[in-house]
């Protein structure tokens, strides 16, 4: 499973966060069960209670970003948007931010 270190308290925690591919532990559990079936490893299947217990004992958590990400950035992150379209998006975002900063600076000067 793809993991991320804690961004906010790396020094004080050993918790590993799973990349934001799953919305819930239940969704991850369903994928685990499907994986076991696809590999003919039904003997590895377990109850959701045991899955949650092991998940917690391994000090894992599902990553949830502190800031919302736009749909375009999320699409790129998961490979659903071309690099060219993503770069255009980033350029538009930076231009909009520059215009906002310019407007804020001019507003402050007038007041």
Automatic annotation (TrEMBL):
Region annotation (Disordered) ranges: 89-111
Protein name stated in the entry: Uncharacterized protein
Organism ancestry: Eukaryota, Metazoa, Ecdysozoa, Arthropoda, Hexapoda
